[in-house]
Design goal:
single chain, alpha/beta, five-stranded parallel β-sheet, 11 helices, about 30% helix
Length: about 400
């Protein structure tokens, strides 16, 4: 098939590689003319790493990223609530990686450019079905143009033009009053140098993990995310204007909340003051759609299921979409049947994750401990049954697609 992918992000590029591996002729159209390695860190869960490994990218991931050993849940005093081994250490068949989003995207861009037709500076603004073909309407610096294909895949993010065909009255993304500040800092390694930590609670949470090996001076590039509720959730609450997304953050917005978070194993305000970059975003998502396909188009990644960044699901679920779409097209000769199979496999799970994350997802346990022991604890068992914590975390993981290898 001739397939156009609108969007050259992690999901779109992975889809291009997966579809090309199945024999399809793929063209990727990315709005940015020359992508650069922008952004900060992300986590790739083992089931996403397995997909990239199938595409031959495991050696590159291992060289670029930090192999995550565990996810630690902690209170705002830095006391451990639960330690969840991850990747190979957690009994998975594949590693989990912490990696710089921009570096991963650029590696995928290079891999895709070597295998398929990748074009920058071409924004898909709409499509038109013509019988058994579909025409992508494209905006370029040189003027409008069109390109015909058998299928168009909308991987164009939370503000997707192709999603608007399915939900023209959807309006802006949903916001519940939480802002995120994301940054990177060079700092001494903490814990074992490979651990991801979520500390605090839903009103103020700090997520931190390394995304590179220590350099010669012993410092390691640490990725961090500081979440803070700035507005109470209410019906119709509107996020800050899109023009303000990814704007430079200010230390003064964070120190009043996180300035006293000095852990035995990490100096949070010290990490913030060392930031080499700090960007501010609203934490937003969208309501799950009742369908992803219309005519000879379908959606993938944030265009299909934007979700709160809880549980390391954003990039991971987009990568799983890519594998599922390629598999469905291989299993069904009829395009409608293939797109239905892809949607049936992925849409219900992603809708569940959106809803779970709106209920704080894996972070719900942090709120419970904060409510029971706001001043900290001597023994966790005096506050909450550790078995209850384990059950809740493992239940979320199962619903989000975590699968450990059989004994």
């Amino acid at each position: 098939m001739q397939i156009i992918i609108a969007g050259g992000g992690i999901g779109g590029l992975t889809a291009a590689l997966a579809l090309q591996a199945r024999g399809h002729a793929v063209t990727v159209l990315e709005a940015v003319r020359e992508p650069r390695p922008l952004g900060v860190g992300i986590n790739l869960l083992p089931h996403a790493v397995a997909v990239l490994a199938e595409l031959g990218l495991l050696p590159a991931l291992h060289a670029m990223a930090v192999e995550t050993s565990a996810l630690v849940f902690a209170n705002r005093h830095g006391q451990t609530i639960y330690r969840d081994p991850r990747g190979l250490a957690g009994g998975y068949s594949d590693p989990q990686y912490s990696i710089h989003r921009g570096e991963l995207q650029m590696r995928l861009w290079a891999e895709a450019s070597a295998r398929v037709d990748v074009r920058g500076g071409q924004r898909v603004i709409g499509v038109r079905d013509e019988g058994d073909r579909v025409v992508a309407q494209i905006e370029t610096a040189e003027g409008p143009r069109e390109l015909e294909a058998d299928l168009v895949v909308g991987a164009d993010g939370i503000h997707s033009a192709l999603r608007r065909r399915l939900a023209p009255d959807e309006g802006p993304p949903c916001w519940r009053g939480v802002m995120m500040w994301r940054g990177t800092s060079w700092a001494p390694p903490f814990l074992d140098g490979r651990t991801m930590v979520q500390a605090g609670h839903s009103q103020a949470k700090f997520v931190v993990y390394p995304i590179g090996a220590p350099r010669a001076d012993g410092l390691q590039l640490i990725n961090w995310i500081a979440d803070r509720r700035v507005r109470d959730p209410e019906p119709g609450l509107t996020a800050p204007d899109r023009a303000d997304w990814s704007r430079p953050g200010r230390l003064d917005d964070l120190l009043p909340t996180f300035g006293g978070w000095h852990f035995d194993w990490l100096d949070v305000p010290g990490l913030l003051t060392r930031a080499e970059q700090m960007l501010e975003w609203p934490m937003v998502d969208r309501d799950p759609l009742p369908r992803w396909r219309l005519g000879r188009t379908t959606l993938l990644g944030d265009a299909a299921h934007p979700m709160f960044p809880i549980g390391s699901n954003g990039a991971t679920q987009a990568i799983l979409d890519a594998k599922a779409l390629a598999g469905a097209l291989a299993a069904h000769t009829d395009l409608d049947a293939a797109l239905a199979a892809y949607e049936d496999e992925r849409r219900p799970m992603c809708a569940r994750i959106v809803e779970m994350n709106r209920r704080e997802g894996l972070d719900a346990i942090l709120d419970r401990v904060e409510a029971l022991a706001p001043g900290g604890f001597t023994r966790l068992a005096d506050v909450i049954d550790p078995a209850e914590v384990a059950r809740e975390i493992n239940s979320y993981k199962a619903a989000a697609g975590h699968r450990q290898r059989a004994p």
